[in-house]
Amino acid sequence: MDAGEYGMGLSAFSLVPLNDCPRNAYYMDGVFAAADGRPFVRSNMICVFERYAGEIGWRHYDVNNKVRESRPKVTLVTRMAASVGNYDYIIDWEFQMDGVIRIKVGLTGMLMVKGTPLQNMNQVLPHENTSGTLVSENVIGVLHDHFVTFYLDMDVDGPVNSFVKVNLVKEETSPGESPRKSYLRTKRHVARSEREAQIKLKLYDPSEFHVVNPEKKSRVGNPSGYKVVPGATAASLLDINDPPQVRGAFTNNQGSCNREEGHCGVVHTRVPSHSMPRGFPNYAHCVGKL
Ligand SMILES: [Cu+2]
After folding, report:
1. What phi and psi values does residue 122 have, to the nearest 5 degrees?
2. Which EC number(s) does the record attach to this protein (predicted)?
């Protein structure tokens, strides 16, 4: 939507102090370009705040030595809200003290609905496709999906970054080798092409996705990098040649990298329309540069 017909940034409007963000938030204005190129300001476009939600940042209890330590979790949050038609997208970037960066997309506003003569679900004929469920008399919440995509230029410790798929695989022991039948090991694969960097998530073929700088090593020789962790994701069920799918081909995979443009990454989230998300259950994450 950022570069599409609506414009996520252009659809962003002023936040409501105290209601959209907590009372310790600092608000920042946004500068936009009008159709004639002139700049104009919208106030309170982004809020920045520290969140202390009573959660644990780190803790450990050493049973043997009876040593107990705990750190509170304090997170720096930046938030904006884009009102695109009937929907309001709330986009949070969270920066944790342990280095984790979390992107959350919340969806609120008004439901996507259509009118119907139906007043109760008991009036639906056995094989009738209503394209959703009644949310009120004569109103159907229409089944559809939202895919949210992010592009990030990671530049981890410099511009020379690699995208690494770390596949978790099952190894089987030889007969008599061990009472164990199987164990886990990792297989690293550095993507050499955009095609190799495409991600299709599979529950029984799990992978981690790392963006590393192979030229910057830690004291013990590991490359510096970030792990990209997909949140709630969904694959498109449409036929790959269906016109909406051709137009939205970025949903063919759950992640990808673009070598020429020097950035990469999508992982999508799907939001069924008639079940309004509570809070921020839907996450989108990003992958970095090849
Ligand atoms: Cu929708």
Report:
1. -75, -5
2. 1.4.3.-
Domain boundary among 120, 143, 166: 143
Examine the domain organization and report whether 87 and 135 are in the same domain.
no
CA 195 to CA 248: how far, in whole Å? 18
Are 148 and 288 within one domain? yes
Range of the domain at 154: 144-290
Average pLDDT, the chain: 84
**Cα–ligand 1 centroid distance for 242 (angstroms):** 19
Asked whether residue 232 falls in the same domain as residue 272, the answer is yes
- Known active-site residue 151: no
* Same domain as 188, residue 252: yes
State the CB neighbour count (10 A cutoff) for residue 97: 13
Active site residue 87: yes
Question: Taking ligand 1, which is a single-atom ion, which protein residues have CB atoms under 5 Å away?
Answer: 112, 273
- Residues 224-268 pLDDT 10s: 999 988 776 667 888 999 998 888 887 788 777 666 555 555 444
Q: Are 79 and 20 within 8 A, CB to CB?
A: yes
Q: How many CB atoms lie within 10 A of CB 155?
A: 15
Is 172 found in the same domain as 36?
no
Q: Are 233 and 104 in contact (CB under 8 A)?
A: no
For the entire predicted model, the pTM comes to 0.80
pLDDT tens column, 83-142? 988 999 999 999 999 889 998 888 899 989 999 999 999 999 999 999 999 999 999 999
The active-site residue out of 87, 153, 155, 157 is 87
How many domains does the chain contain in total? Answer: 3
